[in-house]
Design goal:
2 copies of one chain form a homodimer.
Chain A: H1 7-14, H2 20-31, H3 33-38, H4 41-47, H5 52-61, H6 67-79, H7 83-98, H8 104-120, H9 125-137, E1 141-145, H10 150-159, E2 168-170, H11 177-182, E3 189-193, E4 198-199, H12 200-212, E5 215-220, E6 233-236, H13 249-266, H14 268-285, E7 286-287
Parallel strand pairs in A: 1-2, 1-3, 3-5, 5-6
Helix pairs in contact in A: 2-5, 4-5, 7-8, 8-13, 9-13, 10-13
Chain A binds a DNA duplex (30 and 30 nucleotides) through α2 and α5.
Protein name (chains A, B): SIS domain-containing protein
GO molecular function, one term (chains A, B): DNA-binding transcription factor activity
InterPro entries (chains A, B): Homeodomain-like_sf, HTH_RpiR, RpiR-like, RpiR-like_SIS, SIS_dom, SIS_dom_sf, WH-like_DNA-bd_sf
Chain lengths: ~290, ~290
DNA sequence: AGGCTTCTGCAACAATTGAATCAAAATAAT
DNA sequence: ATTATTTTGATTCAATTGTTGCAGAAGCCT
């Protein structure tokens, strides 16, 4: 069938076998696909000098059940902001909705894949490299992510512990929060993570970092987030989810990328350090798959 | 006036002076401009959790006479740069080739999307529902994930704290690990998370859970993982990554799905509880986007 | 507290939308 | 030339759209 080729190709292929009126419609679709994407069937028909039903007939003739399905294909090819994958993701999503056998997992899977895509799409390699640089050059690395965002903060702290042995994972335990924040200095780098509703302490930490002139990297959910304002390096994590809770997957992917960038900047030497640390861990403290301790 | 700036910039500038409800709408427009471009006012409003008139009010507030004018600005910014089909095809192709200089981020993005896909692909809805059930029916919920997997464990504990107020997040602090494990009873449910190299304590916990006959749910990376053997409910998280560290994204997605399943099983009542808890959090402890504390 | 303004939710409206129906016209076949 | 078939045009319908007006809620000011 018409399957999933570019809709313009599909039209082109069928063109020869269309009736005169349908050709008029098809030709317009080929020439001005954007109009099809954005305007109503009637408007498009008028612009193409064709009756509205003819436009509908073209859609059906090409194998679509509804004019909206037809138009969606034009929208897909325009909206695809990131090459070919975006279109595929949308297709998957559409198909899943269509075959909707309740499918909670399918929805979650689709949503999280889109989250990752949307999170990474607008980010340049250079941006994450620049952020990585600030942590490498910092005297002390400070990390703040509370509540739901604590897993992200913890992961960064844990994954970079070998390179940044005196990094501070700020948790505000035992009421020491103010003091921990006060210790942030001008030569430090700060990583803050928070989503709406933004935990107050995290916002305070971000502001404190700015006021002393520390390098601030924010992972948050929107440009209007209080963490976004004035951040030196800003990464927006998509977080849609079919469930009650927003998804953390995008944020997790970003910190992992940040860690990867740091490792890559530190180069060979860092990898060796890491391997040594992992080996140690393996021997002493873990149940390893090749062993016989099972 | 709104002039001809990018509509997103316009929104961003006005954002501070908007009413709470309008901010919700504005926020959605900033987050998902594509939806505004392609969907009807009512659909958009529904997705943004806002009444249709609010969406219209936002448009008018920003100086547009009609919602269509507002939406056209979103369409403009993603619309085809005009030109014929051939011209655009060439352009698209050029862009793909150009961005095909696959940077680090693209690789990470692709890998994590695949991780999610592979993680969810073999799992049936019924399987995750069954696992969810064991936690709901348990006398006490025990959660063990150490080192790299601690973020996953913490997230589960945090996200379900409202339903399982006496859940135990086992961390082995202050050398109490053995005691914590010993308290697992037959009527409990246990969630263990570990990847190769499997932390010894986690493996011990899994075995302890099995030996007393508690319901064991494992999130791990392989069927031959020590956590996989004899687990009542097993979920394998894909974890490939172009970087040194294995990715946690798949595991994170799975726990989130597990939480979603629990919420869905608990039904309406759970959601109300959650909302109440979120509201409390919002009022007391957080910097919320609608406030004027900025 | 009271009175004022602003903001929010709801219901209803008229216009427009996609789609179905059916007759007229054109075309092809016999 | 007449029938049969497809293509085209016009009309209509039900659903959805953007929009309006109004009443209650919430916030602000003196």
């Amino acid at each position: 069938m018409t399957d999933r080729q570019d809709i313009l190709k599909v039209i082109e292929n069928e063109y020869d076998q269309l009736s005169p009126q349908l050709r008029l419609a098809a030709r317009f679709a080929l020439d001005r696909p954007d109009r099809i994407a954005f305007h109503s069937m009637r408007e498009v028909a008028a612009q193409a000098d064709v009756l509205p039903p003819t436009m509908l007939r073209l859609a059906k003739r090409l194998g679509f059940n509804t004019f909206n399905d037809f138009r969606d294909r034009f929208r897909d090819r325009i909206a695809a902001p990131s090459g070919s994958y975006a279109a595929r993701a949308r297709q998957l999503q559409a198909r899943e909705v269509f075959t909707a056998g309740s499918g909670l997992l399918q929805e979650i899977s689709a949503a999280d894949r889109r989250n990752i895509e949307q999170t990474f799409d607008p980010i340049e390699d250079s941006a994450i490299m620049a952020a990585a640089e600030t942590f490498i050059n910092a005297e002390t690395v400070n990390i703040i992510g509370l509540r739901k965002c604590f897993p992200i903060a913890f992961y960064f702290h844990y994954a970079t512990r070998v390179f940044f042995p005196n990094a501070r994972l700020i948790q505000g335990q035992a009421g020491l929060y103010g003091e921990e924040i006060a210790r942030i200095s001008e030569r430090d780098a700060v990583l803050v993570i928070a989503f709406d509703p933004y935990t107050n302490e995290t916002v305070r930490a971000a502001k404190a970092a700015q006021s002393v002139g520390a390098q601030l990297t924010s992972i948050t959910d929107s440009v209007v987030s209080p963490l976004a304002i004035g951040a030196d390096h800003l990464f927006l994590a998509a977080n849609t989810s079919p469930s009650f809770y927003r998804s953390l997957v995008g944020a997790m992917a970003i910190v992992q990328a940040l860690v990867a960038a740091i490792v890559s900047k530190l180069g060979e030497e860092a990898v060796i350090k890491l391997q040594a640390s992992e080996a140690l861990l393996r021997d002493n403290n873990t149940y390893w798959i090749n062993g016989d301790a099972r």
